[in-house]
Amino acid sequence: MRLIKHLASTALVLGLAAGAAAAHPLDGLTAEEYQKINQILRAEKVADDNTLYPLIELKEPAKADVLAWKEGDSLDRKATVYFTSAEGFSEAVVNITQGKVESNAKTSGQPMVLFTEFMNALEGALGHPDMVAGLAKRGLKPEQAFCLPLTGGNFFTEEYQNSRLMKVPCYQVPEGSNFYAKPVEGLFAIYDIGKKEVQRVIDTGVVKGPKDAWGYTEEEVAKRLPLRAETNPVKLVQEGGPNYKIDGSHIEWDMWRFNFRVDKRPGLVVSNLDVNDAGTWRSVIYQAHLSEVFVPYMDPTEGWYWRTYMDSGEYGFGLFLSPLRAGIDCPSHATFLPATIADDKGSPLVIPDAICVFERSIGDPAWRHFEVFAQTPEKPVPAEGRPATELVVRTASEVGNYDYLIDYRLQQNGQVNIYVGATGLDAVKGVASTSMKDPTAKADTAYGTLIAPNLVAANHDHYFNFRIDFDVDQPINHFSTMDIVPAKLDASSPRKSMWTVEHKMPMTEMEARYKLSSSQPRYFHISDPSREGYLGHEPGYMIHHGDVSYGPFDFENDPPMKRNAYIEYSVWNTVYDPEQRYAGGKFAMQSDGSDTLAEWVKKDQSLMGKDIVTWFSAGFHHIPRMEDWPVMSTEWKTVHIMPHNFFAHNPALTIRK
């Protein structure tokens, strides 16, 4: 089948990584370490040739040990390993340095989908006689279709007990580039990837399929429409080489330094983000990474209600990193770096060009001022200003039909912007309607938009939760809000309405949950209570704003929302716990919502005098439109982090012309 060949060719770009030994305690696992993990597990008879590994990730040393670490120091390297066993799935902690298994026990949940399971579901569904019969009713042979295994969530019914389910719809094998243009609507299999068998095939009736292949390559587009006139290319260039330095996993640029790695579940992880303040390195963020991605669809029909994906926890953003292209994904002058993860067998795999690092002039002034009073007829004085340059660290994960770019953009004024770019293809369903004038159009578009003849894209959401462990100067920080509230004015004041800033400090985790609204402006402040700022302020950083969205969801009774109840609020705060890394819980696959950020905070721990972790959910509602098809323009969403009384003055003041 064509899809199998496509996936196989993708796997061929993954090769044995020849990584060097880790130089920092938070460095990603190297190729040699993955191999050694495998050897240790086999030597202790924990694993054998049949063992598969959904996830192997670095088990970080204690935070205090990392902060005390200096180059040349030695800390044990450890890994958390999820693997298949006779009892189902087990979890081991492997001490790589000492060459031993420290613990080994059955897991309480299900780790992410294995590539092997994905392929088994694809082939199993297409080979089932009921699926073959359903395809035949639609005039298709099995070789004319490919089936796409999708996680089916957990709806707390009997079929989800003692099972590991995927739901598998099919598409016609594409004539060109677009694998999603011709859905085989009304037909899908329910496949248990644990038992390796089809539970049943659902056929809700034949829907006339679309005829258009909707290819999106330049050659395919040129056959449909005249391409735009050739123009002079606009390119980013950098003469003389980069101004950043990369030493293994360590990057230094302008006023910033930090470490990075790639993990299989969250993708890019940024650690030890420090800023240079007049010659003194000061910590800002201990660690930041994607915590979970939740994409629920708003179509309640049989073939769609279960499409409530947890893209990071069920599939893995690191696993689905795709090679970046110079001149398209990143400027040609960027530095391209590989990412090393583990395959199903626990062997090291490298994804080439998985990360790009580049600096760019954004074409805007970092600051400027034109002084009208300095002008004379004899000597006009131009505006004083400086050009703005930023450093970008970028990855792109293709999870099914969507591509997600994750950027960490560092500014010369001390600001940090996390950007998420959503592009790729809408998920579409086949319908009878070819126009909104058709009698079937109202019913066909009850939960989405007719974006092409016979194709409806369902309404849905995208939520991106980030775990941001601020350590402003030190781990023990204060968290507070700065609320814009009406000022109390004297009755004799000529002004009758003004605002002022009200500082509020939540005492506990339950108090420190917030929604963002333009009608109730509020900024979130993380500060160091032990350090006196330059003018006596408590120096800090703040989340200034971000892209957020809320829905009319029932977080108590709707299973997908109960499993992802962290989207009810955009900002959460918890006491640091190294085991709490992912807002959707340690195990996302068929989770029940009992191990999530929304449940952790019910302990309502005091935040006073504690190391605090801040969680932020950026998101947007996606009402599809014709302009999204056949490929969607990149939609950027942000988390905006900026200094607040941290520096003595504008740090961009010292930029050279």
Automatic annotation (TrEMBL):
GO biological process, one term: amine metabolic process
Domain Copper amine oxidase N2-terminal as annotated: residue spans: 24-104
Manner of cofactor binding, per the entry note: Contains 1 topaquinone per subunit.
Stated family: Belongs to the copper/topaquinone oxidase family.
Entry comment on modification after translation: Topaquinone (TPQ) is generated by copper-dependent autoxidation of a specific tyrosyl residue.
Gene Ontology molecular-function annotations: copper ion binding; primary methylamine oxidase activity; quinone binding
Protein name: Amine oxidase
Active site residues per record: D311, Y402
Xref: Pfam families: Cu_amine_oxid, Cu_amine_oxidN2, Cu_amine_oxidN3
Cross-referenced InterPro entries: Cu_amine_oxidase (IPR000269), Cu_amine_oxidase_C (IPR015798), Cu_amine_oxidase_C_sf (IPR036460), Cu_amine_oxidase_N-reg (IPR016182), Cu_amine_oxidase_N2 (IPR015800), Cu_amine_oxidase_N3 (IPR015802)
